[in-house]
């Protein structure tokens, strides 16, 4: 479902405030609203975005500490998890320090720049009085009264990750560590490169959590039977995966039946009108 692009300048202050408040109601509402405002086009919401929203709420509330998300290309996983969710976390929590990683330095920095562009936009700053502290593509922060309260750092999986962390010491949500496309697809043809990627997860990325309760988020298009998703699910990283969200390319009844209440009904409504392929 999509709503028409919002004409921000044509809205009254009361209307703007109501929309901003509605955007704070959930991670998905926030992503859909601010994507619309800053990109000038509607965010086309599908059933799986509500599944993302369900999982993100569990992570932010502390119900789930380690999440693995698998989805085919084109499902706006990065738009939701790596671009808008960090800003939502900053808006909704007193302190948030987030570490985003990806196999590509250019990609992870581009995601960071998108997030930074949102918090620096005139529309956003009209309602959130953060000051910009650090202002680099791979490391920017938000301040209040001269004190840093939020920070987003971006690193490539093959680059220097030591020296930065996600989260703070303390109770409740204070940030998270994220790996969005940790592995380069072409590396999956090499046993040595797959193993090296797994070693980096254990020896480097796992230690970037500020404390044992800092959430860890792993997002990947499945690339190989022995990719890092398989490594994580086997317990190789030493973390118990609390939530494994799988969005298949083809949806069958068995998959629908496995979905949580509320998500199942949205999936049924969405896929019933789509084309069937080989009984799926």
Total DSSP helices = 10
Structural class: alpha/beta
Global mean pLDDT? 93
Low-confidence stretches: none
Report strand order across the widest sheet: 3-4-5-2-6-7-1-8
Cα-based radius of gyration, to the nearest Å? 19 Å
How much beta, percentage-wise? 15-25%
Helix content: 25-40%
- What summary fits the major beta sheet? 8 strands, mixed
Cα-to-Cα separation, first versus last residue: 22 Å
Shape: globular
Write the element-wise H/E pattern from the N-terminal end onward.
HHHEHEHHEEEEHEHEHH
Number of strands: 8
Describe the structure in brief.
The chain has 10 helices and 8 strands. With 280 residues, the chain is of the alpha/beta class.
């Amino acid at each position: 479902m999509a709503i028409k692009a919002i004409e921000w300048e044509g809205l009254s202050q009361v209307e703007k405030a109501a929309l901003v408040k509605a955007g704070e109601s959930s991670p998905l509402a926030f992503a859909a609203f601010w994507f619309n405002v800053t990109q000038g086009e509607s965010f086309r919401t599908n059933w799986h975005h509500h599944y993302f929203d369900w999982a993100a709420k569990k992570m932010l509330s502390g119900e789930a500490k380690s999440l693995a998300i698998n989805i085919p290309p084109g499902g706006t996983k990065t738009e939701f998890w790596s671009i808008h969710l960090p800003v939502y976390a900053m808006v909704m929590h007193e302190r948030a320090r987030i570490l985003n990683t990806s196999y590509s330095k250019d990609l992870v920095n581009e995601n960071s720049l998108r997030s930074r562009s949102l918090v620096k936009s005139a529309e956003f700053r009209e309602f959130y009085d953060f000051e910009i502290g650090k202002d680099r593509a791979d490391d920017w922060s938000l301040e209040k009264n001269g004190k840093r309260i939020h920070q987003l750092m971006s690193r490539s999986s093959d680059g220097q990750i030591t020296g930065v962390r996600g989260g703070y010491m303390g109770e409740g949500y204070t940030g998270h560590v994220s790996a969005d496309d940790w592995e380069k697809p072409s590396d999956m043809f090499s046993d040595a490169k797959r193993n090296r990627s797994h070693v980096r997860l254990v020896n480097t990325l796992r230690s970037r959590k500020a404390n044992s309760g800092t959430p860890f988020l792993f997002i990947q298009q499945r690339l190989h039977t022995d990719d890092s998703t398989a490594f994580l699910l086997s317990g190789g990283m030493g973390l118990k995966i609390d939530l494994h969200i799988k969005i298949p390319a083809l949806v069958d009844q068995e998959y629908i039946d496995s979905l949580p209440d509320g998500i199942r009904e949205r999936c049924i409504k969405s896929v019933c009108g789509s084309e069937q392929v080989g009984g799926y």
